[in-house]
Specification:
This protein has 2 domains: 137 residues, Peptide deformylase (Peptide Deformylase, Alpha-Beta Complex), CATH 3.90.45; 29 residues, no CATH class. 16% of the residues lie in helices and 27% in strands. A 5-stranded antiparallel β-sheet has the order 1-2-3-6-7, with helices on both faces. Strands 4-5-8 form a 3-stranded antiparallel β-sheet. With 182 residues, it is an alpha+beta fold. A hairpin with a 6-residue loop joins strand 2 and strand 3. The structure holds nickel (II) ion. The site of nickel (II) ion has 6 residues, from helix 2.
């Protein structure tokens, strides 16, 4: 496994549409392992392949509720319900956040690293994350959807030692957003 370099906004790769994955080989599996490692290193919730310079329809997510690490290959949203509006961040746009509306609940169909198809329903932050990552596969950044432009994070929230720091989890997509009410 190896850490991959995360591309930053301005890199044209982030604006390209990714291709379907047709080979479920060791290269694809290696990419996914590297993406998990890179995501965890950056303390992220999700990461899409174009963010590490690979234009393949792959993203990874580590759901918070059940701590389930999942790789999504060739994902599509097959159903969506409701709406949520909240803060979003992105590892390719460090230090920024924006307010974006997303479906409250989505059902996603994708393939796992062995090519097996699966479906799963997500709500709340995880639904937001899936939408954000699928946007990456289509060359869309959350800046395009932010209602009032992007804002600077005032500072990196200091880790709370007495357990009062949970509010910072609220708006976290890919990277921690210090205050979702900002
Ligand atoms: Ni992102």
């Amino acid at each position: 496994m190896a850490l991959r370099k995360i591309l930053l906004e301005g890199d044209s790769t982030l604006r390209k549409k990714s291709r379907e994955v047709t080979k479920f080989d060791t290269r694809t599996q290696e990419l996914i392992e590297d993406m998990f490692e890179t995501m965890r290193q950056e303390d992220g919730l999700g990461l899409a392949a174009p963010q590490v310079g690979i234009l393949k329809r792959v993203f990874v997510m580590e759901a918070m509720e059940d701590n389930e690490a999942t790789a999504f290959i060739n994902p599509i949203i097959i159903d969506e319900n409701g709406e949520q509006t909240g803060a979003e961040g992105c590892l390719s746009l460090p230090g920024l956040f924006g307010i974006v509306s997303r479906p409250e609940e989505i059902r996603v169909r994708a393939q796992d690293p062995s090519g097996e198809e699966f479906e799963k329903t997500y709500t709340g932050l995880e639904a937001r994350c899936v939408c954000h990552e699928i946007d990456h596969l289509n060359g869309i950044l959350y800046r395009d959807k932010a209602e009032d432009g992007l804002h600077k994070l005032e500072s990196e929230e200091e880790p709370s030692e007495n357990g009062n720091g949970d509010a910072s989890e609220e708006g976290k997509v890919e990277m921690k957003v210090a205050d979702s009410d900002a």
